[in-house]
Model the fold of this input.
Amino acid sequence: MKVILIEDVKGTGKKGEVVEVSAGYAQNFLFKRKLAVEASSQAMNELKNQQASKQHKIDLDMQAARENVAKVNGKTVKIHAKAGTGGRLFGSVTAKEIAEEMGKQYGVQVDKRKIELAGDIKSFGTFRAVVKFYTGITAECSIEVVEG
Done:
């Protein structure tokens, strides 16, 4: 009997897969626990539509990521910071501050956890940062810390 799994079932398959199982296993275990539905033509169409919808969302996210890369790649983000004697900053410039400045200067919303820095920024100067927008889609930009 062919069934479509609604949840991951150990030893049988993952969610969304169409698998062949015995009729007794399907009736007495999978259907009773609402882990699967029978693979009727209507259920197959619904599964196909769900997969197409998921793929469409992924395509839209990738397109948005590519647009953001075009806006930020190779650009310089200026950050104003206060410093004490000797040019050392009070604290350091964090990924959160960089993300906020990217939003203000280029209109690109970035999660602070997606910004990779080589090290802590504790002085004035220019530093490199890598921004991960999506799996495999990254942008490199410069972070310029100036007194202000």
Summary: The chain has two domains: 2-63, 72-147. The radius of gyration is 25 Å. Strands lie at 2-5, 18-20, 36-38, 76-81, 88-93, 115-117, 121-123, 125-134, 137-147.
